[in-house]
Amino acid sequence: MSKSTYSFKVFFFSYTILVALPIMSLVAILNCLHQVPVYFNGQSVYGVEGVLICIIATPLWGGFVAGINWVILTIGNKIFGRFQRKVDRKKVDSSNLS
After folding, report:
1. Mean pLDDT value of segment 35-64
2. Cα–Cα dist 57/33, whole Å
């Protein structure tokens, strides 16, 4: 099996640290100030519980999105690789004819 050009670890840290962490930090701060609720099981949660939910939700969200992107990009890369090999073979065949 060939090595994948897409790393799940890179996707996970990119989505978790660069995207979700700043947003979740802002939500956690505003939650402590009772400005923005965190919804958990259909209930508004404020305070320390809301911050804990934000802390737990951040890596879960990052893992979910990274997993979806990794699967889709890996499948697309395999399909593109097969298509590219067929195109390369046709170029070699056509250059041998002339």
Report:
1. 92
2. 19
